[in-house]
Amino acid sequence: MGRPVRAICLSLVMTLGAAKAFAATADAMTLELNDSQRVGLYGSAASVVVGNPLVADVAMLDSHSLVISGKGFGATRVEVYDSNGRELFNRRVVIVAPQANQVTLYRGPDANEFNCSPKCHVVAANSSGGGSAPSGGSAPASAPTTTTMTISQTSVPQH
């Protein structure tokens, strides 16, 4: 085989490999914590597998549809099979922190995450320093459970 043909074949193989890797990444379902999404199935579900049930939960609506809910931060895989073992659904599920109405309050090295709509309630606390995003499903025992705050919106005069 000549060099040009070899180069074309190698280029084609690399392109197909990159496309497959991109498709696998694009196939992930991203949900916010405590959010859910309905999934329709092309077949009748007989069994459901959730890789990490601390991250996501699945509720069957009927044999052709299910709801995936975000329970904890992280990633897992949800698989659904019919009675013959045929795969109906297989997707990586990533649970992330809610973006809307989120406020992070820093007190020195400690950070508290609040969800504000319209009053603010503690979502998670990080007292290890550094103020990073929450990494576990629930706040540590030392986190205040009754802390609330109200954020009022005021307009700033423009000059």
Output the keywords.
159 residues; single chain; flat; signal; T2SS-T3SS_pil_N; Pilus assembly protein N-terminal domain-containing protein; alpha+beta; four-stranded mixed sheet; four-stranded antiparallel sheet; 1 helix
Low-pLDDT windows of residues? 18-25, 127-148
Tell me the series of helices and strands, N- to C-terminal: HEEEEEEEEEEE
> Mean pLDDT, as a whole number?
75
For the termini, the CA-CA separation is 73 Å
Share of helix among residues?
10-25%
Main sheet specs: 4 strands, mixed
- Molecular shape: flat
**Strand neighbour order, sheet with most strands:** 1-7-6-3
Structural class based on helices, strands and sheet pairing: alpha+beta
- Provide a count of the helices: 1
Percent of sequence in beta strands: 35-45%
| Number of distinct beta strands | 11
Radius of gyration equals 23 Å
InterPro entries: T2SS-T3SS_pil_N
Keywords: Signal
Region (Disordered): 128-159
Domain Pilus formation protein N-terminal: 26-95
Give your account of this protein's structure.
This protein is 15% helix and 43% strand. It has one helix and eleven strands. The protein is flat. The termini are far apart. Residues 1-23 form the signal peptide.
Short structural description:
It is built from one helix and eleven strands, in the order H-E-E-E-E-E-E-E-E-E-E-E. The protein has one helix spanning 3-26; strands spanning 29-32, 36-40, 47-50, 56-62, 65-70, 74-81, 87-96, 102-107, 110-116, 119-126, 148-150.
